[in-house]
Amino acid sequence: MIRASGKIEVRKKARAVVEPLGRPGVERLDFRRENQITVSVRSDDVPAFELPEETIEDLGSRECETVVAIAAANFIEGNKWRLTEGESTFWATIEDDAFLARVEHGEAFHKGDFLECRIRVEQSRQDDGLHSDYYVTQVLRHIECATQLPLGELPPAPDEPN
Q1: Domain identity same for 43 and 99
Q2: Per-residue pLDDT of the chain (162 residues; tens, 9 = 90+)
Q3: Whole-angstrom Cα Rg for the chain
Q4: Are residues 86 and 139 in the same domain?
Q5: Total domain count for the chain?
Q6: Which candidate, 29, 55, 115, 144, has a CA 20 to 30 Å from the CA of 6?
Q7: Domain with 42 in it
């Protein structure tokens, strides 16, 4: 009986290699080196390559208020927005129904706009490492980017007569 590695990525790749053994008529998979069989895997060895269920360990959550820039707004319901705090960029689910209603009714966004918001971050450890999921629970304020004011007429210089 063949025994598979405990590393999940190695297990996934090994499972893909022995996949043909699940097809009718394929009974053995041989690996050769210089015309010598070095490893032989039989169809009854396939269960050893099954992937275990992914384990997810909840590491807790935290909430904070912060200002983020909109890197990419997504107007398809259920899709995440790409936000940035300057140094870090992340995808976030928008849970604020009042804000989503304003967006639905045409609230405009421009490059350079910010959102002051309350964000919940949920962290977990999964088989492939640490995961953080971001949720905007409330948009407190939409801070529009600075706009250039019209120049109009300049006031006269102090030493010039009116």
Answers
A1: no
A2: 445 445 677 778 888 888 888 888 888 888 888 888 888 888 888 888 887 777 788 899 999 999 999 998 888 888 999 999 988 999 999 999 999 999 999 988 888 889 999 999 999 998 778 999 999 999 999 998 876 666 666 666 677 665
A3: 29
A4: yes
A5: 2
A6: 29
A7: 8-49
d(CA 43, CA 20): 9
Task: Sort residue 95 into left (φ over 0), alpha (ψ -120 to 50) or beta.
Answer: alpha
Amino acid at 12: K
Rounded CA separation 141/118 (Å) = 10
Helices (H), 2-159: 8-18, 97-104
Instruction: Enumerate the β-bridge partners of residue 69.
Output: 84, 114
Q: Are residues 68 and 13 in the same domain?
A: no
Query: Which among 89, 93, 55 has a CA at the least distance from the CA of 77?
Result: 93
Domain boundary, last residue among 49, 64, 81: 49
